[in-house]
Amino acid sequence: MFGTRPDEYPAKLRWPRLGQDAAIVIWPSFLVASVATMVCFAFIDPLLVGNDDSPPPAFASRMTGYAVGFFFFWLVASLSSLLSMYLVRTAHPEPPDNDETKSADRVRSAQ
Amino acid sequence: MTGPDVETDGGLYATRQKIYPREIAGRFQSKRTITVWVLLGIYYLLPWFRWSGRQAVLFDLPARKFHLFALTLWPQDFYFLTWLLVIAALSLFFFTALAGRLFCGYACPQTVWTETFLWMERLVEGSRSQQMKLAKAPWTAQKLLRKGAKQFLWIAFALWTGFTFVGYFTPITELAGLIAHFSTGPWETFWVLFYGGATYVNAGFMREQVCKYMCPYARFQSAMFDKDTLIITYDDQRGEPRGARKKGVDPKSRGLGDCVDCTMCVQVCPTGIDIRQGLQYECIACAACIDACDEVMDKVGYPRGLIRYDTQHGLEGKKKHVVRPRTIVYASLLTALAIGLVVTITHRDAVGVDVLRDRNALFRERADGYVENVYNVKILNKDSAAHEFRITGSGLEGLVVDYAGPTVWVGPGEVQGVPVRLRIPGDELKGGADIQLAVQATDRPDLKAAGKARFIAPSD
User: What angle do CA B410, B411, B415 make, to 5 degrees?
Assistant: First the structure.
C-alpha cells in the first residue's frame, strides 16, 4: 500500500544521510526523554534528591532539577538510539523475503 | 515507483532541495486555514485566560501542581495525565481508522506551524514562482531586504511561540513583565529560546522532512488502516492514460483518461510527492491536491473528484462501512475511558495525607514513662476552599496525639506539614506496630483522609 520507501524517494528531495541519522537519533530520544521526565518527576521532587542528611540539596531549584533530569534522559536515550541506529546501519542486508527466494532455498536444501 | 529523477546509485550525500508548494485555494484548504486559526488561537491565547484570581491553565512546575480551570492536579494525580495520554492515543487511532491521516493534515503542530511559516514566506517573497526566482537571483539589496524581512517575521513569531510555551509553566503576565525588563531567569530564557528555536527550525527549514524521517506516527499509522479508511486518492481508472489534450476534444477519441497531466497536484504538494503514484507514506493528507485537481477539472469541464477522499472499497465500487468492528472497538474503548476519567476526577478525594516518620530518632523514652515517636504529617487540601483539619490516631491502646492544635489550617490547593508527636504508655508495646493517622475537616466531615505509619517502641 505504501509503495515508496525512503531510499526510493526522489534523491533531490532526500535529506543527506548524516541529517537522517541525526534526526533518527535526536528526535525519538527527545520524545522518550519528555515522557521519562514527566514520569520521573511525578514521583520524585528534585528538591528532595540528595537531601537526606546533609544539606545542600543536589539541585539549587526545582526548575534546575527538572532541566538536568530532562537533559540527562535525553542524553541516555540518545546513546541508546545511536547504538541501535549503528547496529541497523552496519548490519548485512537481509535477503529479500519473497516466495521466490524461499522456494529457491527449498530447492537447494532438497538437493 | 521510481521516477526519472531518482539517483539509484545511493545518492547518500545528495542534499535536499527545498520544496516550494504552490499556493492553492479550495474547500479543503479553507477548512485547514480555519483549523490553523482555531488551534493557534487556542495555543497563543489560553495562557492569558484567568480563573478565580489565577492563570486558568498553568502547569506550575516550581510548586508541583497543575491548574486546569477549576481543577488542580498534584503529583499524586499523575495517573490522570497518563490516562489522558491514553485517551489521546486512542482518539488518534480512532480517527485514523475512520478518516486516515486527518491529524497530519489538519491538527499536527508540525503542519500547523509549517503552514504559518509558509504564509509568512508568501507574504514577503510572493508566489511559488517568485520565490523560486528569488532563490536563484544574485544577492542584491532587494533580495537581502526580502530575505531579511522574512527572517525577521519568522524569528519574531518563533520567539512569541517560545514565550507562550513558557507561559504555560510560568505565570504569563509575570513572564511578560520580566521580558519587558530583560530580567527573566536563566531557565525561562533558555526554554523560550529552546522552544522558539525548535519552532523556527522545524517550521522554517525542516518542514516535511520531519514527517518523512522523524515521525513515528507516519510509519505505523498504516496499521490502523483498512479498506474502509478514508484516504486521499487518485482515481487511476478514470484518469489513466493521462495526457495533454486540446480543449473541447473528447478524451475517449484520443484514448485518454481524464487526467490532463497538468502536474498541479504535484506542485501544490507540501511533501513533494505525486499522488498519482498511489498512496505513499509521505502523504500527510492535506488535501491540497484535491483542491488543485478540482479547480483544473472545473476549468476543463470534467466532473470533480479525479483526486478525492475515498476508501479502497469506494474506489473498487464496493459498499463502504463506517461502522465496522475496528471503529466500534476504538469508539467504545474511547467512550469508556472518557467517562471513567470524568467520574474519577469528579469523585477524587479532596484531601490527601502523607505520614513521614522523623528520621532522627526511632523513639524516645520520656521521663513520665511514655514512649514517643515523631512524625511529619503532610495535609493536602485539593478543595477550592480553605479548611481547618483535626488529626486523630488509632491502632494502639492509649495512643496520645500531640500537635500544635487543636486544628490545622490549610489553604485551598495547598500542603501543610505538621510535626506530630505520638505517645503510648511504656508498657503498652514491645517492638513495632502499625498505626493510623486520620485527618478530617472540622466544617466538612466528608473531607477526610487517613495514612498508615509505623510506631516503634523498645523491644525489651
Answer: 60
- pLDDT value at residue B26: 85
Q: Is the peptide bond before B406 cis (omega within 30 degrees of 0)?
A: yes
Question: Do A110 and A104 touch, CB atoms closer than 8 A?
Answer: no
- Residues ≥6 apart with Cβ < 8 Å to B115: B32, B33, B36
Does A45 contact B62 at a Cβ distance shorter than 8 Å? no
Tell me the helix, strand and coil percentages in chain A, rounded to 5: 70, 0, 30
Instruction: Supply φ then ψ for residue B66, to 5 degrees.
Output: -110, 125
Highest mean pLDDT among B101-115, B364-378, B398-412 belongs to B101-115
Find, among B128, B396, B62, the residue nearest to B288 by Cα.
B128
Closest CA to B208 of A82, A10, A77, A25: A10
- Give pLDDT, residue A13: 59
CA distance B164 to chain A (A): 18
The answer to whether B6 contacts chain A (CB < 8 Å) is yes
Domain ranges within chain B, ordered by starting residue: 14-348, 351-456
Q: How far away is chain A from the Cα of B247, in angstroms, using its nearest Cα?
A: 33
B341 and B84 Cβ atoms separated by less than 8 Å: yes
Give CA–CA dist A48/A40, Å, rounded: 13
State the sign of the Cα–Cα–Cα–Cα dihedral A56, A57, A63, A67.
positive
Give the C-alpha separation, B372 to B86, whole Å: 47
Q: Which of B212, B219, B316 to mutate to test the interface with A (most CBs of A within 10 A)?
A: B212
Mean pLDDT of B145-166: 95
Q: Decide: A71 and A84 in contact? Cβ < 8 Å.
A: no
Q: Does domain B351-456 have CATH number 2.60.40.10?
A: yes
Nearest to A20 by CA among B141, B189, B210: B210
Under the banding of pLDDT at 50, 70 and 90, the label for residue A1 is: very low
Residue B119, chain A, CB below 8 Å: the answer is: no
A15:B16 CB<8 A: yes
Return the CA Rg of chain A.
23
Peptide bond into B241 cis (omega under 30): yes
Residues of A in contact with B75 (CB under 8 A): 41-43, 45
Backbone angles phi, psi at B74, to 5 degrees: -115, 170
* pTM for the full predicted model: 0.80
Q: Report the distance separating Cα A96 and Cα B342, nearest Å.
A: 50
User: Nearest CA to B270 among B283, B258, B279, B259?
Assistant: B283
Distance, CA of A72 to CA of A46 (rounded, Å):
14
Residue B454 makes CB contacts below 8 A (sequence gap 6+) with B357, B432, B433, B434, B435
The reply to whether residue A23 touches residue B209, judged by beta carbons under 8 angstroms, is: yes
